[in-house]
UniProtKB/TrEMBL annotation, chain A:
Lineage, highest ranks first: Bacteria, Bacillati, Actinomycetota, Actinomycetes, Micrococcales
Protein name per its UniProtKB record: Aromatic ring-hydroxylating dioxygenase subunit alpha
SUPFAM superfamilies given in the database record: Bet v1-like, ISP domain
One protein family per Pfam: Ring_hydroxyl_A
PROSITE patterns the record matches: RIESKE
GO terms of molecular function: dioxygenase activity
Gene3D superfamilies: Naphthalene 1,2-dioxygenase Alpha Subunit, Chain A, domain 1 (3.90.380.10), Rieske [2Fe-2S] iron-sulphur domain (2.102.10.10)
Chain ranges of the Rieske domain: 44-153
Listed cofactors: Fe cation
UniProtKB/TrEMBL annotation, chain B:
PANTHER family tied to this protein: 3-PHENYLPROPIONATE_CINNAMIC ACID DIOXYGENASE SUBUNIT BETA, BLR3401 PROTEIN
Membrane spanning stretches: none
This protein's record includes keyword Plastid: no
InterPro entries: NTF2-like_dom_sf (IPR032710), Rng_hydr_dOase-bsu (IPR000391)
Official protein name in the record: Aromatic-ring-hydroxylating dioxygenase subunit beta
Annotated family: Belongs to the bacterial ring-hydroxylating dioxygenase beta subunit family.
Pfam families cross-referenced by the UniProt entry: Ring_hydroxyl_B (PF00866)
Key words of the record: Dioxygenase, Oxidoreductase
GO function term, MF aspect, one: dioxygenase activity
Keyword Cytoplasm attributed: no
Amino acid sequence: MTTTPVDSGRGFAALAGTDRVAGQLYTDPDIFEQELEKIFYRTWIWVAHESEIPEAGSFKTATIGRQPVIVNRDRKGNFNVLLNRCRHRGASVCEVPRGKANGFTCPYHSWSYSLEGQLRGIPYPEGYEGVVEKKEMPLERLRVESYAGMIFASFNQEIEPLEDFLGDAKIWIDRFMKQGAGYPVKAQGEHRFRFDGNWKIQLENTTDGYHFPIVHRSWMASVDAETADMLSFMTDENAVTHALGNGHSVAIMVPEHVDLEEDDGTEDLQGRFGHIIEELSQTMPPEQVRRIVRSMHGAGFNLNLFPNVAMSMSFFRVLRPIAVNETEIQHIALGLDGGPESVNRERLRIHEHFQGPFGFGTPDDSEAWDRVQRGAYANKDMPILVNRGLGRERTTEEGWKTSHVTDESGMREAYGQWKKMMSND
Amino acid sequence: MTSQSTATELDSATELNTAPGLELRLGRLADPRVAQAIELVWHEATLLDAKAYEDWERLWTADGKYVIPIDPETEDFEARLNMVYDDARMRRMRVTRLVEGYSMSAVAAARTARTISRFTVGELTEDAVTLRSAQVLVGFKREKHILLAADLTHRVRFTEEGALIDLKVVRLVNSDGAVTASGFLL
């Protein structure tokens, strides 16, 4: 195994070693500014799931780094991501979180734009004769591509295709979506909260199996024995983390639920879902009931996509850097589009139990992350360790560096990508 | 104060008294059931600020629902994602989590002081009162103040065991924005 000490002498990229990073990565405002420029304004950033903008004219607003954007679906069915900034004097043209519109009109002087961003109307246009050509003043369009309903945007028009960037993560995205059990997956509400810490603390956490039974002991104590058993992966040899390249990784907590289409029939359905099984069995064949109920907790893994989204068992975790020491998190609950109402409601209850500012899990995570940020100001020469499992890391035939799910292979993968992107000029 | 301005004030008070829809004589707030319900709401607030969660749990009817919705408009809480949607079973687990000492956010929870006022009376029957009010909660933790404002609805039911909370809905003014995870209850 190779370890690289943190070298603080050669620019910010050098502050990330292969198995440790400088605490400064969480605390230095100059590093944060460079991260916005070199990562958030350069790479693919997740902005929406297609179910959030289901029809022509549907839109949502989002933020990439500090820049407000509008994500919409136009009449041709294409996704557009537009800078939420009027070309005239800079006002935002939309401040509604989501909705349906024919276009966007700036509230300041009523310059109006189409869903594709073209400037359609300028009031009292005489003053602009020979000065402004409407076709030269559209809302700025970002590059947009989607995979399996996951919509990403980039300020970098020259960026590699999204599918190349996702690479082997696509295999896991496809597996993740199987929790729809024959129905498309849809977003069905979200929690939003902020914590007083750097965004990378959250990025690490999605691939941190090590903290789970400690930080989430009170949640574990509150759920039924079968659910607690399902997430008892600390000594399960099949529970592994794969580094997938480009900063992405997957942490497998429930190996038997990696591919929800594979079912050898030996797993007992959880007793807590008895009422759902009974209801669905009245109209559905047993194998379909089984498929839906086995998928109730989502996929058996957290897929961490660098830098801002995770597909985490049964929800999407989206992070937004606010400041070097402040991060906003969305936890988007997922359901079955067109699926049984009782199933979707049960999934909401499962989500509420753990997630959100009053859930049984999120507040404890948030407290831990606050503590990391506070501690990281102590002795900036003392590195943050991400070396757990380095001695037992191996490479699979797919080429994925792999160790136990409690190990830190996923974090090392993310910091590898961070280092690469922060080295770019 | 001149006698003239006093007279003007009296006049406007008389006007208010006769204004449609508003009672300035002894109104429903003076109803003994409403007074009892308000006392319960304030008692509940005192217990929550004191983090006396086991005592708080005893204030509820067996079917009581405790809800902190996200959607500011919805009345159909079951069909929506909420921050809290507790029946007696979830409430029991929530209280256990908050008092047993394994939750690091509960152990390190902010100190809070909440004020509830602006009461209005909705439904008023022999055995139930619905109260609407405003709550301002100020918390303090690690050098920072936390401010959370909410509209509250309490449905208080009068049972053989006394006045109990049958429904509590906490509509945070920032419910669909970012709400900081806090380790205490609203």
